[in-house]
């Protein structure tokens, strides 16, 4: 049964343990660790026919030497076009148990997630819904009015830290992660780079992954969205020769370190540290953080 939780929000621009052999227990463990290292490739995408920028966070190391378990934490772009084989892969291979949808009501209505048997669904909008469209025509018009689209994304990332809707959404997101005992949780927005990107930064930070690695993961959206980004930019270029609009579309479709760093800087300015932000605004106390680590690390 699917669990539907409606929260309003928006945005134009969203071990296997290998045992055996006759060696000692420590030798077996060492061998298993080596094989696990080769198996886990953090940052690699899950290849699906109907969705892009889908990634298993398994394999990322924390500063205290632990590792994020595979097939537990998945980030993604929109899922509306999932094929039957995609659905089977997510359910059978990745043991998907819960989807958290960061999109607005308008986005969800336009491209609803498919129902997956046995998978819970939570609509947890990170931004207020202004009813905006992401059509090429509307985006072109919006970009033409913007002085600096890069500033738009910088301000959007700051709002993830300060806006009450965003704070509540990410707080609810962590509650889903804390309640998950079996299987994997997948979270997504439209492009899987901004709302989902910041949500991923919060999760990795809460688990103890260092900031440089968090940013590296964030920046991988440019790699895994390259083809889609180029299509979007060319679609705008076909409608206008306005250099400002085309450059603006590029800024909107990409992720840049200035975007995520704007959120980090806002956190440091207002709360002193990521840990303080997680506890004070998202209610992720030390005990909850330890619980999170027990679920998702080994």
TrEMBL record:
Q: Which GO terms describe its molecular function?
A: phosphoprotein phosphatase activity
Matching PROSITE patterns: PROKAR_LIPOPROTEIN
Q: What residue ranges carry the coiled-coil annotation?
A: none
Which InterPro entries does the protein's record reference?
A: Prot-tyrosine_phosphatase-like (IPR029021), Tyr/Ser_Pase_IphP-type (IPR026893)
Give the family this protein belongs to, as stated in its UniProt record: Belongs to the protein-tyrosine phosphatase family.
The name this protein carries in UniProt is Tyrosine-protein phosphatase
Organism of derivation: Listeria welshimeri
Its taxonomic placement starts with: Bacteria, Bacillati, Bacillota, Bacilli, Bacillales
């Amino acid at each position: 049964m699917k669990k539907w939780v409606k929260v309003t929000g928006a945005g134009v621009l969203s071990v296997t343990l290998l045992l055996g052999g006759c060696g000692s227990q420590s030798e077996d463990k060492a061998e298993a660790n080596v094989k696990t290292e080769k198996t886990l490739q953090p940052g690699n995408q899950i290849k699906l026919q109907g969705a892009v920028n889908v990634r298993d966070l398994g394999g990322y190391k924390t500063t205290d030497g632990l590792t994020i378990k595979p097939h537990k934490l998945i980030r993604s772009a929109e899922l509306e076009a999932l094929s039957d084989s995609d659905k089977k892969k997510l359910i059978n291979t990745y043991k998907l148990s819960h989807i958290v949808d960061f999109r607005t009501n308008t986005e969800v209505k336009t491209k609803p997630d498919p129902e997956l048997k046995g998978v819970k669904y939570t609509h947890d909008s990170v931004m207020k819904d202004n009813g905006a469209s992401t059509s090429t025509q509307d985006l072109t018009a919006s970009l033409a009015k913007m002085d600096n689209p890069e500033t738009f994304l910088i301000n959007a990332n700051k709002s993830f830290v300060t806006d009450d809707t965003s704070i509540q959404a990410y707080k609810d997101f962590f509650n889903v992660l804390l309640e998950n005992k079996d299987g994997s949780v997948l979270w997504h927005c439209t492009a899987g780079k901004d709302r989902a990107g910041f949500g991923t930064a919060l999760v990795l930070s809460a688990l103890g992954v260092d900031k440089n690695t968090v940013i590296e993961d964030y920046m991988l959206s440019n790699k895994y969205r390259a083809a889609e980004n180029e299509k979007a930019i060319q679609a705008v270029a076909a409608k206008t020769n306005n250099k400002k609009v085309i450059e603006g579309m590029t800024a909107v479709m990409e992720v840049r370190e200035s975007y995520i760093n704007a959120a980090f800087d806002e956190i440091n300015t207002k709360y002193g540290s990521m840990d303080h932000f997680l506890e004070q605004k998202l209610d992720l106390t030390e005990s909850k953080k330890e619980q999170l680590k027990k679920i998702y690390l080994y």
